[in-house]
């Protein structure tokens, strides 16, 4: 089954942990207001300890091309902080269960080895001059 480049880009973003869009499915401003009255209190963004230091990256190879670069991890942290300032994160209850139901098939799809193989084929990655370093997901 051939996938469009746009579909591959979206699935790669999901694979890199960019599930903010899925979080917003469960946490709209209206659901956040309702949940704020009933949610179990969690750790607020400003109370959370600083992020751990990023490990030293490793050179890009075909096996780790889908791992993030240190800059992508930092962008993810910034995006997470922005979402936490705007919305109440729901960790339990019906909205969290809905998110888990929506995210499960997406996670299964992005972990399909055929998707990775097709991505490598279409985008011919890694590029010979790719000097970026890759780090594990945080």
SSE topology:
Layout: H1 5-15, H2 20-26, H3 29-38, E1 58-59, H4 70-86, H5 94-110, H6 113-123, E2 133-134
Antiparallel strand pairs: 1-2
Terminal Cα separation, in Å? 32 Å
Q: Mean pLDDT score, rounded?
A: 74
Question: What fraction of the residues are assigned to beta strands by DSSP?
Answer: under 5%
Radius of gyration: 17 Å
Which blocks of ≥5 consecutive residues have pLDDT under 50? 17-41
Residues in helix, %: 40-55%
Determine the number of helices (DSSP H or I, runs of at least 4 residues): 6
Sketch the topology as an H/E string, one letter per element. Answer: HHHEHHHE
Q: Compute the number of strand runs.
A: 2
Major β-sheet strand ordering: 1-2
**SS-derived structural category:** mainly alpha
Shape: flat
Largest pleated sheet: 2 strands, antiparallel
């Amino acid at each position: 089954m051939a996938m469009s480049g746009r579909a591959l880009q979206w699935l790669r973003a999901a694979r890199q942990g960019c599930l903010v869009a899925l979080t917003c499915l469960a946490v709209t401003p209206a659901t956040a207001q309702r949940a704020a009255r009933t949610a179990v209190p969690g750790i607020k963004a400003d109370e959370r300890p600083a992020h751990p230091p990023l490990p030293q990256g490793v050179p890009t190879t075909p096996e780790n091309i889908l791992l993030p670069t240190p800059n992508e991890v930092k962008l993810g942290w910034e995006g997470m902080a922005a979402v936490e300032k705007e919305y109440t994160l729901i960790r339990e209850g019906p909205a969290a269960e809905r998110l888990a139901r929506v995210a499960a098939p997406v996670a299964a799809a992005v972990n399909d080895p055929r998707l990775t193989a097709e991505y490598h084929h279409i985008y011919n990655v890694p590029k010979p001059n790719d000097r970026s370093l890759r780090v594990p997901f945080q």
